[in-house]
């Protein structure tokens, strides 16, 4: 099957392409910069729709904490623009190109479609939490608007937010509006060394349950010595005070080193990109979400079975884990499920991603609803079919 | 004569009332099936009291399984279902109709499990919003969304309406604070969406369910994200002689890099009404007042408030008054949180809930004044200024049909104004019946059809909380708009 590639320049053209494809029942693969193309199940599509032509920030009001950008806008462009006004996307989107060994320019649309959030997700919510409005083209080729450009909006169902993490299977995103936040005046990271995973998770749990507003908590288990990192952000006087109280309250975990703003930024960028567990290219990488307090025990149980590299983020609520592709592919998912969580296979060869479901299998009732939801948005089943689950 | 139409009751359903009641009594203990007219009466309305419809019956299940049995039975009998929490909806979200059964979740009011290590609380949905925070506050934790009605309103209602509150500038609204729900579908299937993890695999069902106004199913349990409270919080009052200055000050505070936990705005009418009620020390001679609250330890609060005072003075604040004690802070908030109640003591009112881009504040406030004056009525403005969520209270006399009609007309014009300047019809109260007929002002029919298609997935026959959210002419999807 030859694949034709189309490059619409605006949402009207996207709508027309989708309408034609729906009439012919031809599957479409939606791509932006293509940097996350290897996430999820491979899609077999006759048409590739490259939305990177839908580019540009359409609204930015710093005093209202709101920014809108077309789906194909490079993420870097948006973060640079926000940085000029001392603002940021709250959820700290990371660059996954090193992890995925991919190229191409990450876009706003890809960021939303995958709903992957970085370290500050612990404190301020995910990508989906920052979405206040969304325009997309559904599988009928209709341009749909949901939400808007104001912070509080419960007018109608929140279908725009549901586009986050749908991997383009419900609609082709054309423009997204986000709530933004001011960047902190200063950052301080407390780094505790040499803790076991259990102790590290206990430390992070105590830190985030304190009143001292820890905006990120991660444990880098690999390397010569384990490092447990707590991030404080704000005015100098405030972070100095909070750091002092935390160090005092957490004295049983030892005396931490302090990293100030510039080295902190480097450290947390590397944590967000999961640099410490990238490993050899033939290793698979999982992203597990768990109730934080159960993550260390789960990792310990997996270590008893295989060699794994591990990075804990979100105070243990997120575990990045890599292991050799030849190892038992069911062990991780079984363990995650038993621990009250779920696992996503984030990096694996194409053949493996056809064989092992990248996304956590769903309960029967939920799966039935998911098929119905797909039908409600994309009755011909042409948008990124099978990208998340077979048949959806 | 009020303006919002409700459908005529279905005579076929009314005719089989006895059979429906008998069916309910087979599924829950008879004492929890309310049939007598005087006992049904409290359920005939919610906080949009201008509208009343006596339901066919009221049932108060005591477990998720009972809810499942009831929904399965009623949907088989094609009986309409009105889910109800505490009935505090300001938009008529819990208004019954004569051929419908109210299913109240008020008896499902327990805390099931609190997990401080993972910062989650699993609760039954009929628990009140405030009871959750009361339960966990001895350990220093709280549940963030705090609607003004938090003493009475339930988590179920908060989920249905995606409720907000005064503190969502920093902490978000309901959809940002729920990790999972257990929901009963119309056919009685019990489904868990989400769970205890930060994100959920697959589609984001919580986005769809939260804010679906009881039209997808009945949520019986929820896992809430709970947060450790800051060491302290302190509000300050800023008084302005010009409304424009207050608006500019809000923008300047935010642009300076501070996100206060709350920025509340009151105009002179609202200040006077609330001061009279709460004796909070509000300045009576200013055109507009802001309550700005920041959190942290004392030293942090001092730094932040000093900064805010500087910004405020630069933007024309004549009065800057920082709370000096817990009692003063409580009085300041008592005044604001009782704004609706205090207003209710002097007049009937319609509470609007539009949101606007905050840059449009001065223009919109002027226009609201003009609109209300044109209809020969008065207005008190209170709102969450940080996020542009307006609550103009249109004062009127409910015993005068003409005044009610003028008040509703003025309200509609104000909401249309909100949409016109780039905002929306409702920021936190929900559409209900109140804003139903304005939905086409904000959305195209294509947009609404897409929402309706999601609804039809859960409720193809429009049995769940009917006659709400969508204009009546849009349901069911007419021919030519095939699902």
UniProtKB/TrEMBL annotation, chain A:
It comes from the Bacteria. Keywords: FAD, Flavoprotein. Coiled coil: none annotated. GO terms for molecular function: catalytic activity; FAD binding. The keyword GTP-binding does not apply. Residues 1-183 form the FAD-binding PCMH-type domain. InterPro entries: FAD-bd_PCMH, FAD-bd_PCMH-like_sf, FAD-bd_PCMH_sub2, FAD-linked_Oxase-like_C, Oxid_FAD_bind_N, Vanillyl_alc_oxidase_C-sub2. This is 2-hydroxy-acid oxidase. It comes from Candidatus Raskinella chloraquaticus. The lineage of its organism: Bacteria, Pseudomonadati, Pseudomonadota, Alphaproteobacteria, Hyphomicrobiales.
From TrEMBL, chain B:
GO terms for molecular function: FAD binding; oxidoreductase activity. It comes from the Bacteria. Gene3D superfamilies: 3.30.465.10, 3.30.70.2740, Vanillyl-alcohol Oxidase, Chain A, domain 4. The keyword Oxidoreductase applies. Keywords: FAD, Flavoprotein, Oxidoreductase. Pfam families: FAD-oxidase_C, FAD_binding_4. InterPro entries: FAD-bd_oxidored_4_C, FAD-bd_PCMH, FAD-bd_PCMH-like_sf, FAD-bd_PCMH_sub2, FAD-linked_Oxase-like_C, FAD-linked_OxidoTrans_Type4, Oxid_FAD_bind_N, Vanillyl_alc_oxidase_C-sub2. Residues 51-229 form the FAD-binding PCMH-type domain. Its cofactor is FAD. The keyword Isomerase does not apply. This is Glycolate oxidase subunit GlcD. It comes from Candidatus Raskinella chloraquaticus. The lineage of its organism: Bacteria, Pseudomonadati, Pseudomonadota, Alphaproteobacteria, Hyphomicrobiales.
């Amino acid at each position: 099957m030859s694949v034709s590639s189309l490059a619409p320049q605006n949402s009207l053209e996207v709508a027309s392409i989708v309408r034609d494809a729906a009439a012919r029942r031809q599957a479409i693969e939606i791509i932006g910069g293509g940097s996350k193309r290897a996430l999820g199940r491979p899609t077999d599509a006759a048409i590739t729709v490259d939305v990177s032509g839908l580019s540009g920030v359409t609204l930015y009001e710093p005093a209202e904490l709101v920014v809108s950008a077309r789906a194909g806008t490079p993420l870097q462009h948006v973060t640079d623009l926000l940085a000029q006004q001392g603002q940021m996307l709250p959820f700290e989107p990371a660059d996954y190109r090193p992890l995925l060994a991919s190229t191409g320019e990450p876009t706003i649309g890809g960021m939303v479609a995958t709903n992957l959030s970085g370290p500050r997700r612990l404190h301020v919510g995910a990508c989906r939490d920052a979405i206040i409005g969304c325009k997309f083209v559904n599988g009928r080729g209709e341009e749909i608007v949901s939400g808007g450009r104001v912070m509080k909006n419960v007018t109608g169902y929140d279908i725009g937010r549901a586009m986050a993490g749908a991997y383009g299977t419900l609609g082709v995103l054309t423009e997204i509006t986000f709530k933004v936040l001011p960047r902190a005046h200063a950052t301080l990271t407390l780094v505790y060394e040499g803790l076991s995973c259990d102790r590290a998770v206990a430390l992070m749990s105590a830190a985030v349950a304190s009143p001292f507003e820890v905006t990120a908590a991660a444990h880098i288990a690999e390397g010569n010595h384990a490092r447990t990192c707590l991030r404080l952000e704000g005015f100098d006087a405030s972070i100095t005070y909070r750091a002092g109280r935390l160090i005092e309250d957490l004295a049983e975990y030892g005396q931490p080193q302090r990293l100030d703003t510039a080295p902190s930024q480097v450290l947390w960028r590397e944590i967000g990109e999961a640099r410490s567990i990238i490993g050899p290219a033939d290793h698979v990488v999982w992203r597990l979400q768990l109730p934080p307090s159960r993550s260390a025990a789960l990792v310990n149980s997996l270590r008893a079975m295989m060699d794994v590299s591990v990075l804990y983020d979100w105070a243990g609520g997120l575990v990045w884990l890599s292991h050799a592709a030849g190892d038992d592919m069911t062990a991780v998912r079984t363990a995650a499920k038993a621990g009250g969580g779920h696992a996503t296979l984030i990096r694996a060869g194409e053949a493996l991603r056809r064989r092992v479901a990248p996304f956590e299998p769903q309960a029967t009732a939920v799966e039935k609803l998911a098929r119905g939801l797909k039908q409600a948005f994309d009755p011909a089943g042409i948008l990124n079919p099978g990208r998340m689950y077979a048949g959806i | 004569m009020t303006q919002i139409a409700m459908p005529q009751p279905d005579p076929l359903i009314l005719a089989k009332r006895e059979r429906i009641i008998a069916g309910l009594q087979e599924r829950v203990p008879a004492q929890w099936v309310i049939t007598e007219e005087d006992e049904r009466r409290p359920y005939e309305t919610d906080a949009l009291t201008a509208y009343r419809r006596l339901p066919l019956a009221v049932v108060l299940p005591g477990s998720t399984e009972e809810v499942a049995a009831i929904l399965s039975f009623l949907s088989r009998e094609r009986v309409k279902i009105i889910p109800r929490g505490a009935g505090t909806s300001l938009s008529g979200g819990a208004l019954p109709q004569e051929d419908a059964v109210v299913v109240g979740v008020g008896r499902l009011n327990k805390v099931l499990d609190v997990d401080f290590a993972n910062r989650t609380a699993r609760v039954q949905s009929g628990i009140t919003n405030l009871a959750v925070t009361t339960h966990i506050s001895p350990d220093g934790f709280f549940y963030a969304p705090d609607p003004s009605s938090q003493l009475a309103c339930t988590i179920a209602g908060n989920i249905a309406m995606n409720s907000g509150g005064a503190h969502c500038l920093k902490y978000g609204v309901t959809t940002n604070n729920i990790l999972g729900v257990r929901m009963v579908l119309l056919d009685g299937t019990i489904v868990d969406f989400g769970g205890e993890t930060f994100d959920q695999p697959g589609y984001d069902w919580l986005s769809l369910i939260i804010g679906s106004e009881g039209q997808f199913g009945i949520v019986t349990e929820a896992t809430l994200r709970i947060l450790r409270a800051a060491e302290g919080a302190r509000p300050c009052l800023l008084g302005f002689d010009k409304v424009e200055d207050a608006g500019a000050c809000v923008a300047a505070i935010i642009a300076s890099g501070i996100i206060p936990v709350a920025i509340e705005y009151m105009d002179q009418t609202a200040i006077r009404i609330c001061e009279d009620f709460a004796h909070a020390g509000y300045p009576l001679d200013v055109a507009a007042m802001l309550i700005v609250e920041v959190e942290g330890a004392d030293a942090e609060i001092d730094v932040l408030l000093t900064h805010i005072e500087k910004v405020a003075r630069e933007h024309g604040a004549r009065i800057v008054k920082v709370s000096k004690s817990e009692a003063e802070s409580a009085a300041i908030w008592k005044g604001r949180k009782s704004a609706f109640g205090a207003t209710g003591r002097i007049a009937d009112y319609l509470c609007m809930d539009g949101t606007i881009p905050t840059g449009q504040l001065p223009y919109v406030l002027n226009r609201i004044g003009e609109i209300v004056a044109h209809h020969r009525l008065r207005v008190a403005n209170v709102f969450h200024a940080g996020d542009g969520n307006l609550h103009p209270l249109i004062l009127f006399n409910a015993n005068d049909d003409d005044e009610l009609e003028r008040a509703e007309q003025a309200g509609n014009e104000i909401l249309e104004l909100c949409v016109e300047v780039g905002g929306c019809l409702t920021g936190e109260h929900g559409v209900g019946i109140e804003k139903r007929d304005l939905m086409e002002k904000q959305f195209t029919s294509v947009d609404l059809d897409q929402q309706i298609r999601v609804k039809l997935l859960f409720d193809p026959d429009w049995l769940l909380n009917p006659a709400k959210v969508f204009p009546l002419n849009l349901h069911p999807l007419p021919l030519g708009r095939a699902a």
